[in-house]
Fold:
Amino acid sequence: MGTLGVLLVVAQSSVWDSPWVGASVLVVSAVALGAWVVVERRAAAPLVELGLFGRGGMVRANAAMLASGVGMYLLFSLLTRYVQTPQDAGYGFGLSGVLAGAALTPFSVLGFVAGRLAPWLAVRVSARWSFVIYAVFVVLAAGTFAVTRGSLVATLVAMAVLGFGVGGVSAIMPRLVLVGVPQQETSSVLSINQIVRSVGFSIGSALAGLLLATATPADARFPDDHGYTIAAGCVLPLLVLAAFVILPSPRVAAGRDARGSRP
Structure:
C-alpha cells in the first residue's frame, strides 16, 4: 500500500510544480524501501522472504509483468482518452463519461473470456507460451488502433482485443511467478507481483500523458492525431521485451523438455 500511495502522489502534477518537492518524494521513498529491505532480511520471521525474489524464474516473471504492464496501460490510456476527445479536435468521438465507460464493456467481457481460457491454454502450450500469445493480442490491439482509429467500431474492436490480452496476461502470471515457490510464501510472492503490475500500470499511464504532451503544439489544446500513432507504436517494443524476458533460452527449454517439465 505504501508503494501505491507514493505512485498516487507522484502522479499529481502539482507535486512537480516545484521539482525539489517531487525529487524529495522519490528520495524518501527509496530510503524507506531500503530500510524495509534491511529490516526484512534481518527478521527471524520476515513478512516477505526476499531471497525468493532473486531466483531467475521469479525475476523474469516480474520483469515481464512490469514491461507488459507499462505497454498494456499505455494503450488503455490512449484508447480511453481518444474516445472522449471532442470531434472539434479533428479526431475522436466526443463520448461522455457514461458512454466512455460503456465502451469498456468489450474490454471487460473479453478479459473475462481470456481468464477462463488461460488454464486450458497453459495445459496445451505451457504457461510461458500462453503469456506470449496474450502479449500478441495486446500488440494486435495497438496495431488496430494505430491504423483504423477513425472508426468507432474499429476502436471498440481494439478495446476488446486489448481486454483479451490484459485478461490473459493477468490470469497466466500467477502460474509463472509461483514456479518453485514454497506454499507458505505464495501470498507474499503474489502480492509483490501485484505491486509490480500496479507500478507498470502507473508508468504506462504517465508515459501515455508524456507522449501525447510532446505531440501537442504550444498553442493547441489537443495533441496532433499522429501523436496517438507514435504512442501506440511504443506498445510493440514493450510487449516484445516482456515476451523475450519470459521465454527461456533454447538450451534451458530443451533441458526442461527432457525432464518433462513445462512451466
Q: What stands out?
A: The CA atoms of residues 120 and 184 lie 26 Å apart. Residues 56-84 form the longest helix (29 residues). The chain has eleven helices and no strands.
